[in-house]
Amino acid sequence: MGLFDFLKTKDTVPYEKIYEELSAFTEASLAMPKMNNPFLLDDKNKHAMIFGYFMGVMDYIAQAYQLNEKDQLKIRTHYLLKNFTDNDLEQAQELMKYCDDIRDTDDGSNYALRGKLAMKKWVAGGPMAAYAPMGLVKILND
Asked: Which whole-number Å values give the CA distances from 132 to 16, 40, 93, 100, in the listed order?
């Protein structure tokens, strides 16, 4: 490690690759048998489970790509806009605050951990990767 290594900038963040990974995993998770109910996302009793889980998925991405806070915020905002708020920025910001609040609870932390582990399996590939999106269904069935 050289004296001026801190001056080196890290590689640019592959935003498009991250967005594609997140979209594919989210679509697979929401396509599971119990998840394809159009009213499920309207059930506020399930929000902590659903959004806690997906924030864990985001935690995995942030760790895997060594994202700083600015990049994490950009990716989380894009992710929520695209997948859960129909590109409504105000609603995405409210949802982001909600996600941060539920992450501070014991249950929310548990859901986030399970989402993080599911995304880790998904990215690793192999025979277990196909089962990774079922993590959300398992949470809803518990």
From this structure: 22, 20, 28, 23
